[in-house]
Amino acid sequence: MLNGKVAIVTASTRGIGYACVETLAKAGARVYMACRNLEVGNEKTAALCAQGLDVKTVYFEAYDKDSILNMIDTVVANEGRIDILVNNFGGTKPYDDKTIFDTDYDDFARYVEVHMSTVFRASQAAITKAMAAQQSGAIINIGSVAGLTPDVSQLAYGTSKAGIIHLSKMIASQAAALNITCNVVCPGMTATEAVKNNLTPEFQEFFLKHTPIRRMGEPQEIADAVLYFAQAPYTTGQVLAVHGGFGIPTPVYGDMLSMKNKR
User: Fold this and answer.
1) Mean pLDDT of all residues belonging to the chain
2) Angle between helices 38-50 and 15-26 (to 10 degrees)
3) What residues form DSSP beta bridges with 206?
4) Among candidates 55, 42, 49, 51, which has minimal Cα distance to 9?
5) Could you give the 3-state DSSP secondary structure of residue 102?
6) Beta pairing partners, 183
7) Which of 9, 24, 144, 170 is the most buried (most CB within 10 A)?
8) Would you name the residues annotated as active-site residues?
């Protein structure tokens, strides 16, 4: 399936990123686990290599623009090509990223900039330093339901993820002539350490009440969508929401369930 392909997955020592690394490697790709903590990354890649998978580490720090470019340069120097780039980095701090009333502009700008810059810089470098010459490549950006539906908080996170969706469509339009695709996977609430550590059980239950498939997604389910885009050369500029149906029914879906027999 992906035999002979070279892939990079950013922020990938755990959660969705790790699932993407494992899934692409199982499909035959040589995958670079791009991470900040190389010690952890090396431990994870060693475990995957012990399973017969072809996985390596490369340094990546989302807040260091030079590391993003060096990541691309390192892989190109090692492999001579990049076939798949998964821009997975994302995160915010709920106590900083609130509403238009109480979010400090510097915090807002910092979160928007880091999310947008990782996608822009990595994508631009991968295209200009490898994919354009190859006349092929697949870029998959990890968005979020927060970029599809306005929230009562997470002003910066939602805005940046919406920006990534539009940026991805721009890349898709502008790079299509070179047989380079760019698509977005937008997860809903997913069972990752970040969700468990940052969202209270009460909020998790509240969110899932409005999700028709009443459970969190699994990282593997997001990785399966990434794998589809990685091997779909005629699919570009698309946004695939892997969110259990969140936002599809009436906005009061969760509350309506208890009222369906009381009309």
Assistant:
1) 94
2) 30
3) none
4) 55
5) coil
6) 140
7) 9
8) 157
Give the Cα separation of 124 and 129 in Å (integer).
8
Cβ–Cβ under 8 Å, residues 53 and 25: yes
Burial class (CB in 10 A: 0-12, 13-18, 19+), 102: exposed
The pLDDT value recorded for residue 263 is 61
Rg of the chain over Cα atoms, rounded to whole angstroms, equals 19
Burial classification of residue 89, based on how many CB atoms lie within 10 Å of its CB (0-12 exposed, 13-18 middle, 19 or more buried) = buried
Rounded alpha-carbon distances, angstroms, from residue 122 to 44, 86, 105, 142, 261 = 23, 9, 25, 13, 52
Model pTM? 0.95
113-126 pLDDT per residue, tens: 999 999 999 999 99
pLDDT above 70 for 133: yes
User: How far apart (Å, rounded) are the C-alpha atoms in residues 57 and 75?
Assistant: 10
Find all residues with CB under 8 Å of 80, minimum gap 6, and list them: none
Q: How far apart are CA 230 and CA 6, in angstroms?
A: 11
User: Which tens digit of pLDDT belongs to each residue from 206-262?
Assistant: 888 889 999 999 999 999 999 999 999 999 999 999 999 998 888 888 888 877 666
Secondary structure element (H or E) that encloses residue 178, with its range = none
Alpha helix positions (H), the chain: 15-26, 38-50, 65-79, 105-126, 132-134, 155-175, 193-198, 201-209, 219-230, 253-256
The CA distance from 151 to 247, in Å, is 12
CA angle, 190 as apex, 189 and 196 as ends, to 5°? 95
